[in-house]
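Reviewer 2 asked us to include a model.

Predict the structure of this chain.
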Amino acid sequence: MRLSVNNLACERGERRIFQGVSFTLLPGEALVITGRNGAGKSSLLDILAGRLHPASGAILLDDADERTLPECLHYVGHRDALKAALTAEENLAFARDFLGNPALKPREALDAVGLAHAARLPVAYLSAGQRRRVALARLLVAHRPLWLLDEPTSALDTTSQEILRLILESHREGGGMVAASTHSPLFLKDAKEIRIERNPLPPSSAGEGGERSGPGEGPSLIELGPSHDPRSRQGHPLPQRGEGKAGEG
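Predicted model (structure tokens):
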């Protein structure tokens, strides 16, 4: 499967957030989306997930066997989207049945994220980090080649972040693709990076042009290249599982 994004632009409330986003994702590749708050990272993922319509540009999906893009992706957003009254296992069982094309069983997925002991606990009883891990475990209960992740390390301790990295790399080794927005390094090997930065306007144009972030700024500039995290590049050591202390999440 090949995902091609060509000259994508986004508008929210009649304000241009970003424009000129272009990239290609092939099997096994990862794209890291960075930039400060309000630059448009989440909006870009929302467009890819079909939650927002682009103002212009095109998203092309090739070799998907007649599946649509939403049928080929997992999306994990800022909110964990879990039913608090259901157990962790019940939340994953629902996701597995709803999404189809099942992969791991709920207990197996929870074990993969270090939460097998919490399978029968209602999600309302779990910490923020534990709820985040249940949400990420949904990636494992149904086969989807493209994973869209918005701040996936939010609320995760050091050990859980390493577990997530291993899961993402395993997905890529199997031919899967990852696009993730983040403020924290993900340590993904050979990842591409898109950095979205607000474009300053000349003083005479400050406050004009339909920008969201405030006067004096225009639509975001897009920088595409290899990840700026040196530990994610070929030949640099990656953190090993178990490094650092586990927090309360």
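Residues 1 and 63 are 5 Å apart (CA to CA). Residues 204-216, 233-249 have pLDDT under 50 and may be disordered. We have added this to the supplementary material.
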